Amino acid sequence: MTRPRPIPRCGTCFDVGWVCENHPLSPWDATAPRGCTCSAGMPCRECNPSDADHPPRLPTRFKPDADKHGQRH
User: What digits encode the pLDDT tens for the residues 35-68?
Assistant: First the structure.
């Protein structure tokens, strides 16, 4: 028996923190309800706002491809 998902606090991104750029009302996670990964993701305006002084919260499975030493392959 699978455990039910907890009720999300953010109805836009289902607590993923990111939405699809082409479909900003869909979570940027194919496993989430209404999830979409057809394009790049962008921070959810409702629960992950950002500006020059406050960068957005990164997705949980984010893996950088560059660091202080440069590009990693």
Answer: 998 988 999 999 998 888 989 998 877 777 777 7
The reply to whether 60 falls in a domain is no
Question: By the 8 A CB rule, do 15 and 28 touch?
Answer: no
Asked whether 47 and 14 are in contact (CB, 8 A), the reply is no
DSSP state letters, 13-72: TTT-SEEESS-TTSBS-TTSTT---SS-EEE-TTTS---SSSPPPPPTT---SEETTEE-
Give domain status of residue 70, yes or no: no
Q: Is residue 23 part of a domain?
A: yes
